[in-house]
Design brief:
mainly beta, 491 residues, globular, 11-stranded antiparallel β-sheet, 36 strands, 9% helix, Methylamine Dehydrogenase, Chain H
């Protein structure tokens, strides 16, 4: 009997040793900005085996007097491994709007200006060290505005979603052979919902099992907007499903599970979040009860919890703060937090990397290059390593004020609705021209500012539910063993 108790005691000690590092962990994440004097909008991120790949555009990274493409790679602890700016040797600005991480490098897409307010779509590949491998520009219609907004790949092909504007904005699907970049297929989608002068038609898309899921912003009439959901076959380029809703704009979409999708955006000047079934019928849709704002991106953790990032005037100050919220699969608000200060701060993208942690990005006019506060933007990356209780403060005197992830308790999610609309979608096969483009890649030296955790105010970290379950099982086993040798009073 003593031997049995010894085994149970050993198990309890082992589990306690597992729990203590979690409870006492003082790693509370970090907040970093990069920039110089000028607007820097490299506000998009990908995760690469724990490292953070950053991409976008920067005015101050180079010396060309205009926006240049920008990429960087950061360690999980925020240290910059390398940073590069990319300019066209033929002149013209470069901006990056989409990227894909693969085992042999990064595909990055966007546009390059070619004069007379014309831009060509741009696709570039870099190796893991940031070295340029090749660059291609694509012109679908002469004297057009075109830019890559989504990149996907499988073993044989590269798939692109491109926004274009021959008269109103349209969506193009381009399929390229991965080996020689030859054109396999191109399709053009047009709707009366997209025929206005509206930028950024495709906002977010993802690929799963040969299907591209996309959310599209339309403008069916002057000053109006609609949300359009699309499913596109990578095999044929045909639209498999589509559904439209009025009085809103969709900015990001993700799979909650095999049968439901979650999306975020804006409606009536409020950030919205909604859950849809596989036919894109609304299960629920709610808005965040703030003064004004929008939701930019959404990500889902392994337990089905939904993380949202966006920009909102929460306090009625007239300035936007970055907000990050966690929402249950049933649409209940778990927490709502803001990062901001005395100027506008905008949230762009969020990626969940485990059950409790996330990396977020955006651009800020509060925590920026000295003297540029309120005038120019630096981009930021925020890493939060867990679901902390209360506020989370990072200290950096360079900003003139500490960076705080404030928990807001008076923001609620309110039920709302979207009106279903039907817009006819036309399908065309346009022509496309490819050309090599001369790009020059140089090392950058954007100034780094890092805010570190405030160790004077440790933040409690919840014990993971799995450890609670394990401890409960041990208690049950202990009780069972104890009852086998009951005291005589029970006999």
């Amino acid at each position: 009997m003593i031997k049995k108790y010894a085994i149970v005691f050993t198990i309890l000690v082992f589990l306690t040793m597992l729990v203590l590092p979690v409870i006492n962990c003082d790693s509370t994440g970090w907040f970093k900005t990069l920039g110089l004097s000028g607007d820097d909008f490299a506000k998009f991120i990908l995760l690469d085996n724990g490292k953070i790949f950053v991409y976008g555009r920067s005015y101050s990274a180079g010396s060309g007097g205009g926006y240049e493409g920008f990429i960087a790679l950061l360690e999980p602890n925020s240290s910059v491994i390398w940073q590069k700016h990319i300019q066209s040797t033929d002149g013209g600005e470069v901006r990056f709007l989409a990227a894909l991480n693969t085992s042999d490098g990064y595909y990055v897409g966007g546009d390059i200006s070619v004069g007379n307010d014309v831009t060509d779509a741009l696709l570039v590949k870099f190796d893991k060290s940031g070295r340029l491998l090749w660059a291609k520009r694509m012109s679908i219609n002469t004297y057009n505005v075109e830019y890559v907004k989504a990149i996907f790949a499988d073993e044989n092909y590269i798939y692109l979603l491109i926004n274009g504007k021959p008269w109103g904005y349209e969506v193009y699907f381009v399929k390229l052979n991965k080996t020689d970049l030859s054109l396999e297929q191109i399709a053009q989608y047009y709707s009366e919902a997209w025929n206005r002068d509206r930028d950024d038609v495709v906002h977010k898309a993802f690929l799963k099992n040969g299907v591209i899921y996309a959310v599209v912003r339309g403008e069916p009439y002057e000053g109006g907007s609609c949300i359009v959901f699309l499913e596109i076959s990578t095999e044929t380029g045909k639209i498999l499903k589509s559904r439209s809703y009025s009085y809103g704009a969709g900015y990001s979409i993700a799979l909650l599970n095999e049968t439901t999708r979650v999306f975020v955006g804006v409606s009536s000047n409020h950030p919205i979040i909604g859950l849809l079934n596989s036919d894109y019928r609304v299960i629920w849709v709610k808005y965040f009860n703030v003064t004004k704002g929008w939701a930019s991106d959404v990500s889902v953790d392994r337990e089905g919890n939904i993380y949202v990032i966006g920009s909102a005037d929460v306090y009625g100050s007239g300035f936007y703060d970055t907000f990050i919220a966690k929402v249950s699969p049933k649409g209940n608000l778990i927490w709502f937090k803001t990062v901001g200060g005395s100027n506008n701060d905008y949230g762009s993208q969020i990626v969940v990397f485990n059950t409790n942690g996330y990396v977020a990005s955006g651009h800020t006019r509060t925590f920026t290059y000295a003297g540029d506060e309120g005038t120019y933007s630096d981009f930021f990356i925020l890493a939060d390593m867990g679901n902390y209780i209360g506020d989370l403060e990072w200290i950096n005197n360079d900003y003139g004020e500490n960076v705080t992830l404030n928990t807001i308790y008076d923001v609620t999610l309110v039920n709302t609705h979207l009106s279903w609309e039907s817009y006819y979608l036309s399908w065309y096969v346009p022509t496309i021209e490819f050309a090599d483009v001369n790009l020059e890649v140089s090392d950058s030296a954007l100034e780094e500012h890092l805010a570190t955790p405030n160790q004077e105010e440790p933040v409690p970290i919840p014990i993971p539910e799995t450890l609670y379950t394990a401890l409960a099982i041990v208690i049950i086993i202990t009780a069972t063993i104890a009852l086998r040798k009951r005291p005589r009073i029970f006999k």
